[in-house]
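<context>
A single protein, sequence plus fold
<entry> Chain with its tokenised backbone below
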Amino acid sequence: MFRDRIKISGLDISPPLFLAPMAGLTHSALRQLILDFGPVGLLSTEMLSASSLPHENPDISPYLIRTPRERPISYQLLVYRADHAEKAVEKILTLGADCIDINLGCGAPKVVKKGGGIALSRDPDRLKEIIRRIKELCSLPITVKIRLGQRSDTSASTFKDRCLFLQDLGIDALYIHARFDKEPFARPPRWEMTVKAIESLSIPAIINGGIFTIEDARRCFKITGADGIMIGRGAAIRPWIFRDICLCLFSKEGAQAQAPDLPATWLKFFQYLEELFPRERRLGRLKEFTHYFSQNYAFGNRLAMSVQRSKTMAEAKIKALEFFSRNSE
């Protein structure tokens, strides 16, 4: 049994399981699909640009569309300059956010070139000013999401110092993606490198990276001593993973989860897209989700490719149903 709740500032998180922000994936359709299986401690949006966020229409923007059941939820900001913070935070407050996360882990070249993501994490003065400004503008919990740093100059000790620096800036929790900057997802996460930092922090530390199964979650908690875990791609592959971890790690009975109905799950996601998103915003998100969800099947690449080649939602549905009729999990 592991501790089944934590607090981030005044925000109660139970279970201590977090949905990671993922481009093209962490939107309302996936969040609702996950919630259909059971609770998540804290949901997330995709990464949101602080400069363009104020101009987004929450009724039609795929980044902001949201239903009342999607709570609590964190809005992740990609921010380059402190003077972008005011209008972005004002917008987030009108949307009913429960938390604000600052992205310090994105390594996309266009983001880094502008000074965001990992580039911001390497600029302590600018980062300090941005966090100070956001904290002045709202009373929401403020978190940051980071990677381990550059492979060439990062050790467990230097990473600990970096985390303590962030804590001293007044953040309320730290999300740690346990891979070096720009290190690919194919590389196993380096959970062991986070232990010294986590032991030194007085704020909650949440580990991200490499969690796809119940056993992954159990090992991550045991190795790192983290307060919680954050799941990204594993939640797109298995939207029921939060439920399964809750039952096995946080339930006194250690109950066994019921196997999901895979075709029904995919069709439910399809339905959410059709109900929520403008027509032109549906198919790309269906293809992105199916790329991951298809991994539940031995020959799932056939499902992924048939949907990928589809020109319309209707065609994708026909192709998927044909696949489901020929394949069992």
Summary: The chain is about 40% helix and 15% strand. The chain has two domains: 6-250, 262-326. The beta strands are 6-8, 11-13, 17-19, 43-49, 73-78, 99-103, 142-146, 173-177, 205-208, 228-231. The two ends are 30 Å apart (CA to CA).
